[in-house]
Amino acid sequence: MNAAKTVTVPPAAIPPLRLALVFAVLFIAYQLPEGLGLRLLHSAPVNAALMLAFFPVAWLCGRALGFRGFDAWYMGLRPGWVGLLAATFALACAAKAVALGLGSGLGIYRVASSGLGAEQVLMAALMMLPYTFIPSVAEDIVTRGFLLRAFPRLGQRWLFVLASSALYVANHIYRYADGPLELARLFAFGLAYGAGIYYSRSLWAAIGLHWGWNFAGQFSDSVISNDLIAPTQGPLVSIAAHLLMLGVVVLVARARRA
């Protein structure tokens, strides 16, 4: 992965209290769409409006830290960012295909054609692209872009990947009751996505992996018959797929450094 040039600020230049306030604002802005829009008001339009509202909030938070909006979250539009996003998106889609194939072979999933025509498949893809992109970016800003900006020294060590994975799990406040296996699945997701920004110094790598997985999951649910036969084993397949992504990210990064 090509490292993207980013604007950096010495750790002492951003007051800790300001960092804490910015994180609180980002965290609340991210949780509101599901908490208020879906769980309290049961309104998909409110959920969508609040999710879109996250982005001007994130831009203002970036400005509050002294950056040009989204540059604060390592989202600068530097040369190569589109290729980085596309490559990681493709990797995640491929990993989802592997997961479905592996799960089908092991009897965890029952996968069959839904019989949809090419036009219906295309329409489903066009609908799913923005639908999965927006929440993926929002969560990556909260759990990875902010962490790297707030603790740049941590970002120089692989410990950042573990810390961002833990924050990613903690950010799923509505999933705490789903059990340890689900939390382990989220942690594995965080490892792959955290490695993306760690090695590239660009949030676009994490976004591509996160968005690609979410898109492939939603898309496959829409265009094929995909029944989960063994619910307790399904998360294990997803964990394996993300560990595979993690391995690819590490290997590519090391090969580019050699």
Describe the structure in your own words.
By secondary structure, this protein is mainly alpha-helical. It has two domains: 12-73, no CATH class; 74-257, no CATH class. It contains eight helices and two strands; from the N terminus they run αααβααααβα. α4 crosses α5 (159-171) and α6 runs parallel beside α8. The longest helix is centred in the middle third of the chain and has 33 residues, at 118-150. Residues 2-11 have low confidence and may be disordered. This is CPBP family intramembrane metalloprotease. Keywords: Hydrolase, Membrane, Metalloprotease, Protease, Transmembrane, Transmembrane helix. It comes from Massilia horti. Residues 124-215 form the CAAX prenyl protease 2/Lysostaphin resistance protein A-like domain.
Helix content: over 70%
Q: In one word, what is the shape?
A: globular
Largest sheet: 2 strands, antiparallel
Extract low-pLDDT stretches: 2-11
Beta-strand content bin: under 5%
Query: What is the tally of beta strands?
Result: 2
> What's the number of helices?
8
Mean pLDDT value: 91
The largest sheet has its strands arranged as 1-2
- End-to-end span in angstroms? 12 Å
When the domains are counted, the total is 2
Radius of gyration: 18 Å
What is the string of SSEs from the N terminus onward?
Answer: HHHEHHHHEH
Alpha-beta classification: mainly alpha
Keywords: Hydrolase, Membrane, Metalloprotease, Protease, Transmembrane, Transmembrane helix
GO molecular function: endopeptidase activity; metallopeptidase activity
GO biological process, one term: proteolysis
Organism: Massilia horti
